[in-house]
Amino acid sequence: MRVMVIGRGGREHSLAQTLAKSPNVSTIYAVPGNAGMEQVAECVAIPETDQAQLVAFAKENEVDLTIVGPENPLLDGLVDRFQEAGLKVFGPSSEAALIEGSKHFAKQLMAKYEIPTAAYEAFTEVEPAKAYIRGKGAPIVVKADGLAAGKGVVVAETVDEACEAVEDMLGNGQFGDASREIVVEEFLAGEEFSLMAFVNGRNVYPMITAKDHKRAFEGDQGPNTGGMGAFAPVPDLAESDYQFAVSSILQPTADAMVEEGRPFVGILYAGLIQTSAGPKVIEFNARFGDPETQVVLPLLENDLDQVFVDVLEGRDPELRWSRSTCAGVVVASSGYPGAYEKGRPVPVIESNHVFVTHAGTEKAEQGYVSSGGRVLLVGAQAERLPEALENVYDYMQQFDGNKDFFYRRDIGLSSIAPASSRHVK
Q: Mapping DSSP to helix (H, G, I), strand (E, B) and coil, where does residue 200 land?
């Protein structure tokens, strides 16, 4: 097979690394890709936004399957364009991708189909939103309705902080069109986890669980980011809660999208929280999570290309998972998720104990240099979570004292326990 992966981040590098293991895959095109992806793929300098050029490249190079990684091309209708051209593509239509593109739409869908989530209201004006917040009190959550690269969420500890977030988003247009509308919802207490599934209409094939760490700094302090590290599976999640998440959240959501005339085909990502009343939805994404993908896919024992084809053609891919665990820690540019400098030399030392997925790197004369906020992820697979984390953090010492980069030193530490096989099928 000739496979094209559209995107340039760590998620796409992980997809390419996993596809490269398959004996069925002869060529991988990473479009546009990043410096690290050149190790396993041919990078092609076409922007994710240039639909006509992407379709033309796929035709000219007889690409058998295209996987769309990022959310923006999905919402812009890239999958629809490929389908119109008669090309095999994995990902949701623009109508189905709205489950990520509009938090208000997702909340309305969950309310209509009784999918467990936080109580909420949506607003387009500042004062009504502030009045609602004052009536509810804090802690409370303020979210930009549209796409904001994982940064459009404020978990406010005080009413003043929540009102300031409303002013920033609605009053000052902090996230542009993405914050013309906001969702204000109740704060849910509990442990968060992620659950992704391959979906085709009503057919749902769940993966193993993962846990992302969104806050920038240790102790879950600082602003939200796109993710500072992850591990899989979540060792202390009960099997009954996993099954509830599949049967009462993922499956009903896939069914609801069919009922709404927006059948979902692709990766349905549920960001969940384990509350005292059971798992509830924090958010939905319409694609692989980042950095969860980087720790979930290394544990997949199937050939990934065959999984994609099986799901697209309506067959059960019969997913098989390793009984080990996988952990990954993100190296970020100093200042991220705010302003940061690019072009800083990135130390990348080869090691048999870890793997590296690149996110924001470029090639220069002296080697790799940074080109983004999240620069790379260092991951390791081991029988137990503590062993995987030890291997990762041993490697990360090369970044200590380097003022150009930072990383969290507490990824996975709150869940140190023997890795469980309870989600292995």
A: strand
